[in-house]
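ok so i was messing around last nite and threw this chain in just to see what happens. nothing serious, just curious
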Amino acid sequence: MKRKFRRFIEISLCITSVLLLFACNEKEKRETNSQPVDRYNLSIANEPLIFAIDSTTPNHSPFLSLYTDSAGREYLAYLSRGKGQTGNIQFFTLANQQLAKRIPVAVEGPDGVGDMRGFYVRDLDNVYIAASSTLSLAHVNQEGRIKNKVNYAITSTGRSTFPTIVGLRNPVMIRQGELLLPMTTVGSWLQMTQAQLLEWPLCLAIDTGQNRVEYLAVTFPSDYWQVGRKDALYSNVQAGVNYVYAFLGDPHLYVTRDFKQVDKHLIGSRFFEEVPPQPKDMAVDSYVKHMWETPQFGNLLYDPYQEVYYWFTSLGEELPPGTALPTTGLFPPQVSIIIVGEDFKKLGEVKLPRNRFAINNAFVAKAGLYLSDNHPQNPQAREDALSFTRLDLVKIDQ
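result:
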């Protein structure tokens, strides 16, 4: 009897040990695969910024940024590419929502800058304009007159360059007086190998005082195409001494201070596990459909006032059979914003209302994060004004 009882105890202990081990493994698996608990949220404020515009100004821009003058006054600097041979940069005050300044920009002629992509404002009398058709930056004054052209066609080591991709995803960054221009691959990346993709540096440093131009050693991640091709697109942002890169098909943020050592931080989205590679040998229509339906990472913004990063994602949406293909990918219907701390730990993620915001037109001011309301499918979108809704960063009580 004692022997049977002892045997029963031994079997019970064995079963208990197995169950405990299984439970621990499941807990570890869940913790490994789950997203961290949100610590911050974004709350939509009912205090929009409304900037009246004339009939020549589009309600969505290929480039905008916040400009703060020496007195601390904040302006929305807005690129308006007009029809024909002119365009302008408009400066709207955030305090009274009025147009304060308009810098005319010619495309051709003695003060022509080329086909404008974006700009960097040092102050109103020193604006650097990047174009897709030239290998120089046009340095203009507040009347739009060219003070000089900063040529970057050849690096100091004799390497040829190509036009910068300054734009909404890729603003100019600064390093000790140098202008850091975003660059990308040249030619059709659909025909490239992974090794060829890595041959193209993503940053060009221009020292305007010394007339020195050099590529900096930051490229696409070495494993970016390990499981298949993904779009060769990225976003970059400067946060103090940190230069941060986010790639369309990669759940990591890449951080460098010296463009030599790059640190990699896994962030990811709670709404999708990965960005699938593109099917091989896609036709144009198949490519557009794939990009619309596939989740992907997008623009990256830094908030120096709250000391956080906002990483936008497009969550993808299946197109019903027979639906016309979208003509542009600028206005995804369903998006989220990932909130990342300065230590590159994920603080939260917020799914935004469907078809509410044009997330490519966004900026950060002292008051908060502003998103354009002028999504084409938003019933409240305006043709006669630039409308921006503020999102406030809110800490969640645990």
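not much to say yet. Helices lie at 2-33, 194-197, 284-293.
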